[in-house]
């Protein structure tokens, strides 16, 4: 391994097992640290994941201890069985494979970004604040079984702050600038862990970046409208989290950020991942554009630097934009997931340890995810999701004026965000879920206080008079307590924010009166009075346009076609479309 050259740590050394907190030989024999039975009984989620992130409720006398006793008996009975997960140590290896997946998904995010430093395991994990914005979104209430969904934001930084990073990413002239979050994906795991949805937002999407305060120096960055990748420059990943929450209305539990060098190291540890192109591709041109990826038509196993090239390729895939790059990243992630689920990779404990070291050396995480134990538990949650229920999409988008950037597509984008807020799978297989009955209003219309604010101050500029128009409409509907907030803000989708469960019935009734979709109604601790923010999806008229709630093929139970969905199992033979300008 090369020297760090950044923190003055000198030559990186392989730690002794005892230094990692494991008994000598224990990891090699069983593939698990000594306390792992609590994490891996029955191949299920560890106790921490259940408590913190909405796993199954406590099952009392038949719970984890009983399962461990049963598992121990089964292990004895299965002595001598084949080593495919059914024999001695097999469960441990299976959980470790899924820990590898919990870490490995970051390979994709790291296609955008910088070089973090080599340390070891817990000591190596860099931790930062989860949310640097004004906050306000409340964690979803548990369902009848005590389960809650889990949302993890995966980020890739493009910082060029080391020689290794410059070597991999180029652009030495950018060495001193703050990094950008060039890859952003939200992983949504359903409350019952039956499905997983992954949504990417293109880096050039123009959004409202909320006010953020950098905890390191106390500097406050004012609210602004800019490409979403610039949010990382406003104090760190916590501002990108705040931006996603403001844009989507989705509560985010954790973030994980990785960089160029981290991707290469983890891709080497994972081993080759098969990818496919529909013709020869060489991502390079005379103007210096391209990642350098060069592949012949067909399927190839990529790892290390070549995996990074695949994940970074924009010039050469589809229309040479971030949209094609996001699709290539989804294909890579799906392929890696299939391999890990099939057990075709990472069955060797030493290889697993290498990945754990590589991953933790490359990660920045929020403080709530800042230990290897918690990453193991995350791996357990991911293990439970069947491959056929994993869907990856790109946020529905459209070009802004001049086609220099993109914006969320009215209707389709909000419909997609609304599905995730409601914990509805994007694959169309949640049609049997019944919506919870709406509570009755508790306050007479003429006594309900509601503030209306113009949220159209986005990429296209503000639509004048929106707050006044909607306030007057509310008064005409009997909501005589409605008033306006004259301050402009930027909100992609119209949102009706209320504080506390007692106001939900009133908020739903008001939304129905205006024709707003139920997904626009959100509980928020940042408001003291009910607040209606009129978004970019409602720039004219006083009744919410019906098309905005379900445009372009969107439905209440399936992602719109404009999201370009990929299924981890069904689309296993998919190949990237190569742009004819970049073939050979």
What can you tell me about this protein's structure?
- By secondary structure, this protein is of the alpha/beta class.
- Among the domains are: 27-271 and 345-385, no CATH class; 445-548.
- The chain is 30% helix and 16% strand.
- The chain contains 18 helices and 23 strands.
- The strands form 7 sheets. The chain has an 8-stranded mixed beta sheet, sandwiched between helices.
- Helix 16 links the parallel strand 18 (450-454) and strand 19.
- The chain is globular, with a radius of gyration of 24 Å.
- The protein starts with 25 loop residues before the first helix and ends in a 17-residue tail after the last strand.
- The model is unreliable at 1-99, 105-119 and 548-554 (pLDDT under 50).
Biggest beta-sheet profile: 8 strands, mixed
Question: What is the 3D shape?
Answer: globular
Percent of sequence in beta strands: 15-25%
Q: Could you list the spans in which at least 5 consecutive residues all have pLDDT below 50?
A: 1-99, 105-119, 548-554
The average pLDDT score comes to: 76
Arrangement of strands in the largest sheet: 1-14-9-2-3-4-15-23
Distance between the termini: 35 Å
Number of separate strands: 23
The level of helicity is 25-40%
Transmembrane segments: 98-118
Family: Belongs to the LytR/CpsA/Psr (LCP) family.
Organism: Streptomyces yunnanensis
Domain Cell envelope-related transcriptional attenuator: 181-341
